[in-house]
Amino acid sequence: MSIQSSALGYPRVGAKREVKKASEAYWAGKISAEELQKVAKEQRLVRWQTLRDQGIDVIPSGDFTLYDHVLDFNYTFNIIPKRFAEAKLSDLDRYFAMGRGHQKDGVDLEAQEMQKWFDSNYHYIKSEVSSHTEFRLNDTKPVDEYLEAKEAGIETRPVLVGPITALLLGKAGRDEANRASFEPISLLDKLVPVYGELLKKLQAAGATEVQIDEPSLVMDSTANLAQQYQATFEALAKAAPGLKITLATYFGRLDKNVEFVAKLPVSALHVDLDRAPEQLDQVLAAVKPTQLKLSLGLVSGRNIWKNDLAASLATAKKAIEALGQDRVVVATSSSLLHTPVTLANESRLSADVKDWFSFATEKAAEVATLAKALSGADVQAALDANKQSIEARRAFEQNSDASVRDRLSKVTPDMYNRKSPFPERKAAQDKVYDLPTFPTTTIGSFPQTKEIRLARSKNTKGELSTEEYEKFLENEIKSAVDFQEAIDIDILVHGEPERNDMSQYFGEQLQGFVFTENAWVQSYGSRYVRPPIIVSDVSRPHPMTVRWSSYAQSLTKRPMKGMLTGPVTILNWSFPRADVSKEVQCKQLALALRDEVCDLAKAGIFAIQVDEPAIREGLPLRQVDWNAYLTWAVDSFKLSTAGRLDADVISVEASKSDLKLLEVFHKHGYENLIGPGL
């Protein structure tokens, strides 16, 4: 019997960012809604055909979106806040307004809140739910796209956000009288019947299976929801008995939740064995007495490295031995949404480095190869080529830079701490700076204007010489300094016109990183980024920011801040290595930044800001894992700064929280300075 291959999802942007470009053209009024939908339909077909051509058996549909799949869910089930529902907009414009706001033709709507999708770098639109929400099928997008694929001769498995995860990710709407205590999950019993209606429509359209994503099952918060999960899936199974349900979990381990999950009335359970390979034995033990199929998430949907096919085959064979060949499926660990589309568009990577990588299209082929190998097909040539690639990468990684590893091994506890306590530092700083009681500053980056982006692009293409480009940047910095002096800012910044991205800018100047041309990954909506890739030990060959900070300081007598991105943020906004821990990579980054801090201080830059917006984003999904992460994350920050500074001032974004965050610092006895962003 053949083992099936499955992909949980695929990037939406298009190999040449066709969807992004069309969406932005529509928002700018350059193309019509019909033209946008035409591009969307073309790209959906390309996605299905690509997965089919790579050998995927179970192809997803319904995971494509023009903005966000959670927003699609909200629109489908009529979770539309009153301010949007009452606005005089077309259906398409109403949908986009919920995600990005709308300020046009007398309509002024603020977008809904955006939040990180679990611990990924993707952002979803947070639903606003209230006791007044009336669930109904406002749209049939999953059915329409299933039929669209079927018409093209491609059978698919529709993908839906699970009802419990959808509500857990929501928040109380503005029209909810009891916003402080209202919990969206309290409306589960009202949502489930409508969800069942959608499943009935999919069944009537000819669908034989459906993928319901419940990634919340890898969170602590769902441990007490066993009864809700049981009742929900009993109702859904009853609503559409002809649909086989694959319950998809990803981004972490089920832990004890597997005990009730294995008893749910579904046909298959998907688990992430990339992010949580240690859960396999527990899952096999729970699933074995049941009739469930087990979908093995073997090929990573989160990184860009080639899969070690030999290791994955060993894992799959272990599952087959426990369950039988007829109960095992091989799959991506999660949707491939979090990876670039294809390596085919990368022409500047060296052949050796490129051979280490696997993007979404290539990952689909890896899944198919695993399925074929397990089914007895002759794929030895592919397995041999994969083995050669894995061995070459490991040989490079093991011999990349012994001096960096040696330096890290010699880090001592005193390197994490300052030489003097805060009160002494504060007194010394007051003598030097003579600042007012409530000094003012800005967090850093000034707007990246069209002129700045154009100049950078011309310099990259060779149309603007380095000398001309640097003169342009000097003028931009002078304008930023003059403006701040004119409005009487106390501690200035240089505006960062030279930086393309707060993470990429540093990665481009550090050893150990490589960069791509077209490896775009969705951050939110039409915002796509090209994350740096860490391929080896990280070091700093030369100063990165001293030149521009020193120039800015030469323009003013007021103190100028040096601006650095912290090690945790650089790491979390990059594709990390797979062969060493994140802790090791982060501390290597910290040592490189430590050198930069020292050079800035030697150059006369005595106020230095280190940005760590991603330190919270990297927090593990389960609380039991928090302490280990926070220990090395905080140590990395301290290691990068304690050569010259530690957190004398913590700047926090406070304008959207009614300053409530300040109470936290007060409660925990924080005694250093704080700068609330207003």
From TrEMBL:
InterPro entries attached to this UniProt entry: Cbl-indep_Met_Synth_N, Met_Synth_C/arc, UROD/MetE-like_sf
CDD domains: CIMS_C_terminal_like, CIMS_N_terminal_like
Cofactor(s) the protein needs: Zn(2+)
Pfam family of the protein (one): Meth_synt_2
EC number: 2.1.1.14
Pathway(s) this gene product operates in, as recorded in its UniProt entry: Amino-acid biosynthesis; L-methionine biosynthesis via de novo pathway; L-methionine from L-homocysteine (MetE route): step 1/1
Purpose: Catalyzes the transfer of a methyl group from 5-methyltetrahydrofolate to homocysteine resulting in methionine formation.
Stated name of the protein: 5-methyltetrahydropteroyltriglutamate--homocysteine S-methyltransferase
